[in-house]
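Researcher: Here's a chain I'd like modeled. Treat it as a single chain, no partners, no ligands.
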Amino acid sequence: MSPTNTEGGRAAGLATVLRPVRAGNGFEEALEQILQVVRLGLVARGERLPSERELAERLGISRVTLREVLKVLQDQGLVEARRGRYGGTFVLPRPEGAGEDELRRRIRGVDVEDVLRFREVLEVGAAGLCAAHGLDEARAARLRAALADTHDAPLTDYRRRDTLLHLTLAELCGSPTLAAQYAAVRATVNDLLDCIPLLVRNLEHSQRQHTALVDAVLDGDADGAREMMREHCAGTAALLRGFLT
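Model: Modeled as a single isolated chain. Structure tokens:
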């Protein structure tokens, strides 16, 4: 796995999720966006969030407001502040045993069918747009790199890198609105996925689908890309329905 590939995917994902908030709801929207960064795994557990200066600039808020947001995340046990030369705000590992009860509490009230349908619409649309409009060499290289990172992923990091691949595809489709909507729904999908086990056979199948999907996109086969993404989403949906509904 190339560190450059992973860093590129993370940077693209952060650019998709972190955007200027609207006046009047700065605190709430900033909190929502940083929570998405954590839930999407754009900053892995144990790693440091972007600096306060960078976060404040990306979100278009004051450092005071940002610190209020980070304080909420600390109080919830999601991040911790560390001082010193190598300090900053770090994403905390999920506590041992917090597990299933906490995850199921988090998704209580989530309309699983609505989430899965909206996810499919966005993902199929993004795949079709990427294939139909084509990717220049730089963007094609980003997509290949994101795919390669999923192939190299240890089991414990697979879902995070899978998320980065899908976010990359959404970002490359050329619609910032679609990419932002996808990031939001994917955060909820990740909460759902965290409630079910990682099944090696399913991951192997998903990897074959990822490869076929990327091939279709790079070949400019819009129909093939849409169909493969539809099939891929249906497989994930079947697992989630089986375990959760």
